[in-house]
Amino acid sequence: MQSSTRIRVVAVAALLGLVAVFAGPGSAQAEPAAPEATTVGDVSGFSADGSVYHLRAGSAEARVSFVTDETFRIELAPDGTFSDPTGDDIVLPQGAPPHTRWKERSDRYELSTGSVTLRAYKSPLRFELHRADGSLVWSEAKGLSWDGKRTTQTLARGADEQFYGAGMQNGRGNTSHRDKTVEVGVDYNWNDGGHPNSVPFYLSSAGYGVFRNTYAPNTYAFTDPVTTSAQEQRFDAYYFAGDGAKDVIGQYTKLTGKPFLPPVYGMEIGDADCYLHNANRGERHTLDALKVADGYVEHDMPNGWMLVNDGYGCGHEDLAETAKGLQDRGMQLGLWTQDGIGKIADQVKAGQRVAKLDVAWVGAGYKFALDGCKDAYKGIEDNSDARGFTYAPESWSGAQRCGVQWSGDQYGTWDYIRWQIPTYAGATMSGLAYTTGDVDGIFGGSAKTYTRDLQWKMFLGTTMTMDGWAASDKQPFRYGEPYTSINRDYLKLKESLLPYQYSYAHEATKTGVGMVRPLVLEYPDDPKAATGAAKYEFMSGEDFLVAPVYQDSTHRDGIYLPKGTWIDYWSGRTYQGPTTVDHYSAPLDTLPLFVKAGASVPMWPGIRSYQDRTADSSLAWDIYPQGASSFTLYEDDGVTRQHRDGRYATQRANVDAPVRGVGDITVNIGESKGDFTGKQSRRPYEFSVHTGSAPSAVKLDGKLPRLGSEAAYKTAKQGWWYDRDDRGGVVRIKTAPLSTGKEFSVKLEDTSAVGGKNAAATAVVSAPEGQELGAGVAGTVAVDVTAGSADVTDAAVGLDVPEGWQVTPASTVDRIPAGTTRRVEVAVTPAKDATAGEARITALARYRVAGESRTTVQRFAAAVMPQPPTADTWASDLVWLKSTNGYGPAERDRSNGESGATDGHTLTLAGKTYAKGIGSHADSDIEVYLGGRCTAFTADVGIDDEINGYGEVAFSVEADGKVLWTSPKVTGASATVPVDVDVTGARHVHLKVTDTNGSKTGDHGDWAAARFSCS
């Protein structure tokens, strides 16, 4: 089946008169032979005018203009006439140029600032950049060249030189582009390999970056030599010589604009749908959006804003009333600009605060796209006291200063999760501070993919969920339990982390570096950070390492942790990097998430909306003590533009702790410097200090009272409590309200750095994969306890299980010798009505080691099996433990349909119709549980007649990891293939349909009359 995204994009392009973007005039004719390239010749003239230098080479002329000590521009006009199509659209005024000097030598001119020297060799003209100490930065392998289509620079490539940038490159960008060719330009390809939101900028590990000042498409081949070209008859590039990638990004964004600071509600999740004239949902009205907003409130879920007209042909009405209703629910009104922004003034006055730009704002060219972003942003600011906030699907250099870059119309699949991970982290290398995609896409999707996708996107600065194109609405509360509770937990985790994320948002306005970062940006000297070892993970700020689950699995392999101490956010287990973690236990509610030792993370605890904060609300610090560390909190009113006039405050937390092992910890909270509307003059503070060892005392202007329980801690106005069972041991501290205008210190005496007094002696709990339990049936759960560098004694293992389950405690293990593992089996009986599928269990082991009482905890998944069949059963009537499908959901007793359940047609093979069976689309995998009760599987298989002869697939039956039967290649024209497979003793059976020709077009594979013979 052809992708409906592709159909839709082409249709939209045609409507907008954009077909030429894809094909161009006369595309059916043979391409004319490309003219031979001309390379610039010998220097025939030289002149200097302050910081601007001219070099003539026959009819061509080059111009070098210094912008700062480390930034300069090279232009080449092949015909001697300079032009600048971008004008002042992208490059901002930079102030007075630096002092420069020049020197002529026999073979070259040397053009210098205090930091760099650009050599211009004479015969032929060729450029080479050196630092002030003489070290080489880059060198042209040959002079600039041009042909009838493009201008090209050719650079020598360093032996270990790595390259990054080029904007949003789908599926790429957070690891090196070395040996790859990347395209920079609008392509409307929002799939893996596409390049929406391209940026004509790249940077090198050699310490430089290049920005092509153009609206023309670019191609960068990072081969040997490196060739970078733009489709225009002029050359215009800015060069940045920096002290590492962050410095280069900073220089580039100083030239083209620092990222904007979103309003706080813009960093909460957004919601988009069409409420007026919605063809997929029936007739509704704009005010119906308030019912959805009520759903967020009723389910205690954060939501910052709602687009109420997100759909082609969707209008809007009652804007002011809708905006007021949303504001009453703690949300803001957004509109999609499908019909342009000519009315934005009136819309903003009615309450609009978010503008999402349509692909129409790209159609007439990159300038049009950039102008759309700037004009919509300005429209919000000119007509309200709010900050401009826009979303754009295709943009260009400069858009980072006015909008979020959004990766387009995508599907809710595991593969989309996979390739989006490097996409957004990689875009940060081009100064794009806010890049994102819809949670679970806008097509297809499932409860599992939605939940997994939402988890990691809470660690992006911005994101939204979108309805209207999928078969059912995609709010985070639509799938029921356990998904609703898991989604709520992650939405509220993001809400609590807003002070951390907002501080990084402010930092980006100064440095140009976004919060979402590839590992190589933080660890440039780590040889694995630039490779595939780190491709499917990213840093969220400097303190969180996020490694999303992108397969239908309850574990994650290949998590690379760079140098340092890393703490599992959920268990408190410590890892020493560099190391690779395999078999990480990740049940559905667990995002693999690690915190860097030394982190001090500011948090807003227990809120649904930033507007829940009051003058009495506490500020919490989540601290992972190791050595000396600090974090500076940034605060303002979160909504208006007063911060641009200096109305903001900063407060610094400094932590002094042992590097490892025993010692005191001092947390110093400085005075809050600055002021803004709504600033707290006094507030209570909370601290969670991950020590692993109980302190002897906690002091704040004298000893704070030690509290004996969680209940006592919750009701006390101030005091501390050591929660031994929380993630290996956490000291919880709360204070009475304190003045924000005065610094104070909290001292924890006789405790330890993160990991405990003897971190190497810490025991580890794990659980074997693939454990199964039957609903209402007594069984056992195995838990492994592994001792560290010292013997473990008195180890007692307990389980936290779902409500209604029964657990019989296991016997205490007297001793586990150092370095060995002891398996403990705990008797467990699931509830009779336990839902088949994954159930999360948490194992907690209490033990003694090295004279200290410790705990260790681990989440893991056990599979609850349905009752196995006891009589002959249709495959479509069984519970499906797993159901993955190439397009839309697999169908019961229907052919494969579109993106919704039960939208297929009657199963038909070779003219015969079937009342029972499974309709799928390659690649497909249906898993059922037989429990060893069945002996045979029979079916008729083939490609459904509705495809009219297309498609090419193979069918297979697998049981308990073994392939029992595979069909020959089946096409749409093949005869029906009978299936009769012996499945005697099989517990788990997989029915698979696999594409065999790579096209996945028309691969509607039917398991007609699919039946198990059981007893």
Report on the architecture of this protein.
InterPro entries: A-galactase_NEW3, DUF5110, Gal_mutarotase_sf_dom, Galactose-bd-like_sf, GH, Glyco_hyd_98_carb-bd, Glyco_hydro_31_C, Glyco_hydro_31_TIM. This is NPCBM/NEW2 domain-containing protein. It holds the Pfam family NPCBM. Keywords: Glycosidase, Hydrolase, Signal. With 1015 residues, this protein is mainly beta. It contains 13 helices and 72 strands. The strands form 14 sheets. Strands 1, 6, 7, 8, 9, 10, 11, 13, 16 and 17 form a ten-stranded antiparallel sheet that branches. Helix 9 runs parallel beside helix 10. The longest helix has 17 residues. The radius of gyration is 31 Å and the shape is globular. The two termini are 39 Å apart. The N terminus is likely disordered.
Write the layout of secondary structure elements.
Layout: H1 4-15, H2 19-22, E1 38-39, E2 45-49, E3 52-57, E4 60-66, E5 71-77, E6 101-104, E7 108-112, E8 116-121, E9 126-131, E10 136-146, E11 151-155, E12 163-167, E13 181-184, E14 198-204, E15 208-212, E16 218-221, E17 226-230, E18 235-241, H3 245-256, E19 270-272, H4 289-298, E20 305-307, H5 319-328, E21 332-336, H6 344-350, E22 352-356, H7 366-382, E23 390-392, E24 404-406, E25 411-412, H8 414-427, E26 435-436, E27 443-444, H9 447-457, E28 464-466, H10 483-496, H11 498-511, E29 516-517, H12 519-522, E30 538-540, E31 544-546, E32 555-556, E33 559-568, E34 574-581, E35 584-585, E36 593-596, E37 600-603, E38 619-623, E39 628-635, E40 649-656, E41 662-669, E42 673-674, E43 682-683, E44 685-690, E45 697-699, H13 710-715, E46 719-723, E47 730-734, E48 738-739, E49 744-752, E50 764-766, E51 772-774, E52 779-786, E53 792-800, E54 806-808, E55 813-816, E56 821-829, E57 837-849, E58 852-865, E59 873-874, E60 880-884, E61 891-892, E62 907-909, E63 912-914, E64 917-919, E65 924-929, E66 934-943, E67 952-959, ...
Parallel strand pairs: 19-20, 19-28, 20-21, 21-22, 22-23, 23-24, 24-26, 25-27, 38-44, 51-58
Antiparallel strand pairs: 1-10, 2-3, 3-4, 4-5, 5-18, 6-7, 7-8, 8-9, 9-10, 10-11, 11-17, 12-14, 13-16, 14-15, 15-18, 16-17, 29-30, 30-31, 31-36, 32-35, 33-34, 33-36, 37-38, 39-40, 40-41, 40-42, 41-49, 43-48, 44-47, 45-49, 46-47, 50-52, 52-56, 53-55, 53-57, 54-56, 57-58, 59-72, 60-65, 61-64, ...
Helix pairs in contact: 9-10
